[in-house]
Design goal:
Length: about 220
């Protein structure tokens, strides 16, 4: 599988670094069929997230830089790899917008479609996060990374999407709640004061020594 970290920055081979629309490619059709399973409990039970990740990776590597595909990938990575996967997926979404804004799909002239792709991601991932149990201490760094990337997404939305930007408020709130649910580290135990009995050992020894000196045997030495 391709290096996921570079999917948002590595160009598509060829003259057009953002590729071409992949909406009629077989990979996209298979991807859409899997994602459609989210609409029913029976479908969700049979959804193959590995297939979603594979199809998204293929499209973003060799076919098209597509925000909707990247949104599907972020969801898939979260389902398979937890908060570490989510941080990776969200960073890909940020990188795509920063690197390929002019050629990104949906086309620049269709800002509402771009916003809708990102809104789908936020609205699908937020409840999936909320359903998870309280986060463990090992999740602190990945969650903090997610929080930082969501802040980047919000800045891009405010700068590039005009009057109808995607809203990441609920996604940010869910991440903050998980961070706050992490058990606090226990403070280090303070050193206990030395007990009188343990500190009196020296004087006891001196008393014995004094007794020895006053004994007859010691006087004869």
């Amino acid at each position: 599988m391709a290096d996921l970290a570079v999917l948002g920055t590595a160009p598509i081979p060829g003259a057009n670094t953002a590729g071409a629309s992949a909406r009629y490619e077989p990979e996209f059709e298979r991807l859409s069929a899997e994602i459609a399973k989210l609409e029913s409990p029976e479908g969700r039970a049979s959804l193959k997230w590995n297939d979603v990740i594979e199809a998204c990776t293929t499209i973003l590597t060799s076919k098209s830089k597509d925000l909707l595909v990247a949104s599907y990938l972020a969801m898939g990575l979260f389902q398979k790899n937890g908060y570490t996967g989510l941080a990776t997926g969200l960073k890909i979404v940020v990188d795509l917008q920063n690197t390929f804004w002019d050629g990104l799909f949906p086309e620049k002239s269709r800002l509402r479609a771009r916003a809708a792709a990102l809104q789908w991601m936020s609205e699908r991932i937020s409840p999936a996060i909320a359903e998870k149990s309280a986060a463990s201490k090992s999740s602190r760094d990945p969650l903090t990374a997610c929080e930082a990337v969501i802040e980047e997404l919000g800045k891009i939305a405010g700068e590039k999407y005009g009057e109808s930007p995607p809203d990441f408020g609920e996604l940010a709130r869910c991440i903050r709640e998980k961070i706050s649910s992490i058990p606090a580290d226990k403070p280090p135990e303070e050193a206990k004061p030395e007990s009188p009995s343990s500190s009196g050992g020296g004087s006891s020894g001196m008393a014995v020594q004094a007794a020895d000196v006053s004994s007859p045997e010691a006087a004869r030495a």
